[in-house]
């Protein structure tokens, strides 16, 4: 028959097990720490990269992206409403001035041009008819004025005759009065006729001028259409490369619709963009560094687009060397906007060891050991970091990321 185990015994057994387990855990932790300390207190020299602290200039930059665009790109549009009849050149083809790119069907516009020619001829013919009619009316008015003058002379003679007859008793006072009234009426009619004649002379010029102006307007419209017909011959007017052409043969194009692009590949610019977080810092006139492979090109922001689209600020960079062979249309490049500059300051090459914090720890190589130092960081860019304090000229800073050794003051560097 089993007997119940005493409580004191069970408590001792339980405490013993806890002590053994705790001891094992402490031994394991101590072993791990010892192994870690032993393994991580040294590193091979081939696994680290160093740079020497020097003095010089450091520029603070903002990171952006950009695309290489031809500085001068001619966009050819359709001057008339037409359809694409034939494509003569394909994209990427070099072109010379006068080289035809594509051919448009201009038949409808040609018919409209001939119609306007006929309308202009009708207008000119109507001007000649109006001039002849006005000349006839003026001639008739002048003849009527001469006839009226002759009639007035006759009436004056009649008045004198009646006055002489009255003296010899051959006419009465009433006859003289009638003759005088007839003369006055004729003189008033002549004044009216002369006024009409003056008005006709003046209005004749105005009427002709109005009609001639209408003909001139139609003539200018005709010249404009003639110019559009000539421009409908889509040819290059400068040397360059055809970067794009509408190859949809038979498709209709409206007036002003783009047909082709010819770029001058002798000069380029950069269309840049960056986050709107930097909107307050991106300004026209700021220096810019454009990184293409291992080369850097200098330039300046010439224009900042006023609108922000989808959280992106866009700007245009004018390059100091806009015709270098490294530039290619539509090439994607890295753009660094220089916001400030320090001269005659301590600097060291940038690398993974620099995390962007104002104060941080950096390992400095001294012989076969690397010692941890706290440094203060100033300006930085993709090439260099400004050192405010903590390092001196000639120090060899380790650029490799050594975060796994951050608990150590010193690291052994093995050959």
Keyphrases for this structure?
415 residues, alpha+beta, conserved putative lor/sdh protein from methanococcus maripaludis s2 fold, OB fold (Dihydrolipoamide Acetyltransferase, E2P), six-stranded antiparallel β-barrel, 37% helix, 37% strand, rod-shaped
Would you give an account of this structure?
With 415 residues, the protein is α+β, with helices and mostly antiparallel strands. Among the domains are: 42-59 and 342-414, conserved putative lor/sdh protein from methanococcus maripaludis s2 fold (Beta Barrel), CATH 2.40.420; 79-104 and 235-256, OB fold (Dihydrolipoamide Acetyltransferase, E2P) (Beta Barrel); 108-231. Helices cover 37% and strands 37% of the residues. The chain is rod-shaped, with a radius of gyration of 51 Å. The model has no long low-confidence stretch (mean pLDDT 83).
Q: What fraction, in percent, of the residue positions are helical?
A: 25-40%
Could you say which structural class the secondary elements and strand pairing correspond to?
alpha+beta
The gross shape turns out to be rod-shaped
Measure the end-to-end span. 74 Å
What's the gyration radius in Å? 51 Å
Give the integer mean of the pLDDT values.
83
Number of helices: 3
* DSSP summary, beta strand count: 19
- Uncertain spans, ≥5 residues at pLDDT below 50? none
The largest pleated sheet is described as: 6 strands, antiparallel, barrel
Instruction: Provide the β-strand percentage band.
Output: 35-45%
- Order of strands, main sheet, comes to 3-10-13-12-11-14
Order of helices and strands: HEEEEEEHHEEEEEEEEEEEEE
């Amino acid at each position: 028959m089993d007997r119940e185990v005493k409580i004191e015994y069970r408590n001792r057994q339980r405490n013993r097990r806890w002590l053994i387990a705790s001891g094992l855990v402490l031994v394991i932790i101590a072993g791990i720490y010892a192994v870690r300390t032993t393994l991580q207190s040294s590193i091979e020299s081939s696994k680290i990269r160093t740079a020497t602290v020097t003095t010089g200039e450091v520029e603070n930059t903002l990171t952006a992206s950009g695309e290489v665009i031809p500085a001068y790109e001619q966009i050819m549009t359709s001057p008339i409403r037409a359809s694409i009849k034939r494509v003569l050149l394909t994209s990427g083809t070099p072109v010379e001035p006068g080289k035809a790119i594509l051919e448009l069907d201009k038949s409808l516009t040609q018919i409209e041009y001939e119609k306007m020619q006929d309308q202009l001829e009708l207008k000119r013919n109507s001007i000649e008819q109006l001039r002849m009619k006005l000349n006839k009316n003026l001639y008739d008015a002048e003849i009527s004025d001469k006839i009226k003058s002759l009639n007035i002379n006759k009436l004056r003679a009649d008045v004198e005759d009646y006055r002489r007859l009255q003296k010899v008793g051959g006419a009465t006072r009433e006859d003289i009065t009638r003759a005088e009234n007839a003369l006055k009426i004729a003189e008033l009619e002549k004044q009216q006729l002369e006024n009409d004649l003056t008005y006709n002379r003046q209005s004749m010029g105005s009427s002709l001028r109005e009609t001639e102006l209408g003909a001139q307007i139609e003539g200018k419209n005709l010249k404009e259409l003639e110019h559009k017909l000539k421009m409908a011959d889509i040819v290059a007017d400068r040397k360059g490369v055809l970067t794009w052409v509408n190859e949809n043969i038979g498709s209709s194009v409206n007036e002003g619709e783009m047909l082709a692009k010819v770029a001058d590949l002798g000069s380029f610019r950069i269309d840049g963009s960056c986050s709107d977080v930097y909107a307050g810092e991106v300004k026209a006139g700021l220096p810019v560094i454009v990184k293409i492979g291992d080369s850097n090109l200098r330039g300046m922001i010439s224009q900042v687009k006023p609108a922000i689209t989808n959280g992106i600020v866009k700007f245009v960079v004018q390059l100091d060397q806009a015709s270098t062979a490294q530039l290619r249309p539509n090439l994607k490049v890295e753009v660094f906007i220089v916001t400030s500059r320090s001269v005659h300051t301590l600097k060291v090459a940038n690398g993974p060891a620099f995390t962007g914090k104002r104060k941080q720890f950096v390992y400095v190589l001294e012989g076969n050991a690397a010692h941890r130092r706290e440094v203060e960081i100033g300006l930085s860019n993709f090439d260099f970091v400004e050192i405010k304090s903590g390092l001196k000229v000639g120090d060899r800073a380790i650029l490799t990321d050594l975060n796994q050794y951050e608990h150590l003051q010193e690291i052994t560097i093995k050959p």
